[in-house]
Amino acid sequence: MIRAVARWTLAIALGAMGIAHFVATRGFRIVVPDWATRLTRLDKDAIVIASGVVELALAAGLLALPRERRRIGCATAAFFVAVFPGNVHQWRTGRSAPGLDTDTKRLGRLFLQPVFVLWALWSTGSRAPRPRSRRAIR
Fold it and tell me: What is the pTM of this model?
């Protein structure tokens, strides 16, 4: 029950952030490092929109595809890892974005990222593969 509530909360938060990427694109552009545009060959607006689409897709998948829950949990965790350089960039440059308008909030956001990764994995029942014991190998 607790995992289900956590999963739904995560999905709702992802969906809200995904929508925010379309509504407040300019506010999210500052999180995108310049190297990301060179690497992807997309402009900052396209990267913001693409990440919003991914967030919406992950949110929908968490709610609508229970058989794929673990895979979507892993994909969500991977997404949180993938956007972490943008959070670091925002902290290093000291630029404000929606809800992140102080250095303290931007730094705190960095420490929340691992929590989001663990939240995605835990709420979907995903876990890292365990090493085989010697007994299992024999």
Answer: 0.84
